[in-house]
Input
Amino acid sequence: MLENEKIKLRAVEPEDLEILYHWENNPNYWHAGELRVPYSKFALKQYILSARKNIYENKQLRFMIELKTLNVTVGTIDLFDFDVFNSRVSLGLLIDEPYRGKGLAEESVMLIEEFVFNYLKINQLYVQIAELNEASATLFAKLGFEKTCVLRDWISTENGFENVILYQKFRNSI
Output
């Protein structure tokens, strides 16, 4: 289990169905993902069952972020688009609104970096951040991710199209 004094990253459990259902069906969180439609409980149950497979089979892995002092799940951190041949994986992060601004995102990313670089021995961890998401850009820059690319008009928003910035961190840079 990945943990520090504040949080632990743990596997998805069947008991997480309700909170995942709430997060995946919250339109306020859809801007960060590629799908903008609700998930059924049936689909999420199937996802939870498939989460038992490892990252080499699924090409993705989700951890639940649990606040140890309160024993409450406060978010998720996902590894996806896992590419063993090119030794890279993408990172997605969600901290539920009531728990933002408390350093939990930073703590979660540092734990997942340790897992990716030291356990999986992957060379590159990367994130795609909407250009207007200053909080995420600040977080990843602070953690040593380098802004390397602008994907122009990459995501559709209610105000038109928005650029996405690619941030990368390499194993040999830590």
Remarks:
- The helical segments are 17-24, 41-50, 55-58, 104-119, 134-142.
